[in-house]
Amino acid sequence: MTGSEQHLGVVVGVDGSGNSDVAVRWAAHEAAMRKERLTLVQAIALPIPGWPPSNLRELCEADAEAILDDAVTNINDFVKDGAPSDLNRKLLFSQPASAMVDMSKNADMVVVGARGLGALRRVLLGSVSTALIHHAHCPVAVIHQDASLYAEATTAPVLLGTDASAASELATEIAFDEAAMRGVDLLVLHAASDTDMSHILSTTYSTGLSAVGEMLTERLAAYQERYPGVSVQQTVVDDRPATHLVNLAASAQLVVVGSHGRGGFAGMALGSVGTAVAHASRTPVIVARSQ
Questions:
Q1: Choice among 163-167, 203-207, 266-270 with the minimum mean pLDDT
Q2: Residue 214 lies in a domain
Q3: Where does the record place the UspA domain (predicted)?
């Protein structure tokens, strides 16, 4: 980031939908916890030049400003005393997905609402959400409209999906940081394989899982020293990490996954575990992306 570029803090996409409203509230709470700026973004893709009416840009701009005004009211009404102290708003005439990916270069986190159907095998994530979790330059939080954000979830743990590799270090750090800020436990899930191993399980395999658990403990030790107030619970499972994460997410307030990894998640670039969890989980999901 150059000196002339503005640091955007936590960026959230705004479009006036119910998904967006929930994402805005979550982002405001996150920015307040982090003591960071909150940037509201409304990006508009205009039709081709010459499409009537001639004052289309002015009409779209007025509508977008009203939506941004509503987002500010949403924050003030819902977050109240915990609202971020530094609130910024931007209106861009650009394709929303490309605009948000570009803004992620100067952000600490991008938050976006998601549209989904909820089952691992029958899901539809919005185009902006999909673009961000694959191409953003910072962590991406995907928030579903029916997520239980506050009253029911404030004491629930943060859930981390990790393969205990170097590729999952960012996700691990984010998860510990989120648990510390929220004052809750951290549940760490590691899967020994990404495929169904039930047909070949044996005593030898179970012994191997025990060794995996010991390795995971070693990888987490440094983080536990840095975050002594965070109580960690480890779970090592045989296989199917996405399924286990989605099931456990139902009793968590936040899920953190890496954008790629090796080991327990077997080299799956986000196209597998991370995407499946972001699609299917009703709980907010942070995908740990970076520059």
A1: 266-270
A2: yes
A3: 10-144, 157-289
